[in-house]
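Bench log. Compound arrived from synthesis this morning; before running ITC I wanted a structural hypothesis for how coenzyme A sits in the protein. Inputs:
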Amino acid sequence: MIIFRNARKSDITQILEIEKISFISPWSRVAFECEISKMLMGNGIFLVAEDEENNKICGYVCANVIIDYIHILNLAVAPDYRRKGIAKEFIKRIEADAIKKKYYGITLEVCETNEAAINLYKKFGFIIKGKREKYYENKEDALIMWKIL
Ligand SMILES: CC(C)(COP(=O)(O)OP(=O)(O)OC[C@H]1O[C@@H](n2cnc3c(N)ncnc32)[C@H](O)[C@@H]1OP(=O)(O)O)[C@@H](O)C(=O)NCCC(=O)NCCS
């Protein structure tokens, strides 16, 4: 069974493995440690999905609270665990938290060629509201997506 819980510092080694195979410019250990600190201070969300059978971390999501909205910063699922609804569960949880706290909305940037992620966000009602040109290291553009709650 897959369980969802807050991230711990001891998860970061496994998170970095997923990060490296998921992105061309992976985040560093320090970046994830910083997100754990923000979560502990109440300014951020950092969830992991863990396979209870083998204690493997199979996905994670980091988001920051910016006054009255949530900015999703990072989301990835390990290749072996993709297409099982893990990312959907992460977004569902972030949205439920945002509604509970009466936040205005949720935003994120996604690479314009990342069909899987764009489909995921559209499924939740996120709308493309803008573009950041050459946002990524490989010069691809980022789409700015928003969901107003
Ligand atoms: C994008 C990503 C997070 C999706 O995670 P996941 O757990 O496999 O997604 P889910 O199983 O919850 O799928 C939810 C929906 O996303 C869309 N989706 C997911 N993978 C897809 C794919 N390969 N192709 C097309 N649509 C896809 C579908 O609409 C899917 O719903 P469905 O299964 O009912 O059709 C995962 O592919 C990943 O980690 N990719 C690399 C990192 C990344 O791109 N992160 C997002 C950065 S913005």
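What the model suggests: Residues 86-100 form the longest helix (15 residues). Residues 68 and 102 are 8 Å apart (CA to CA).
ITC booked for Thursday regardless.
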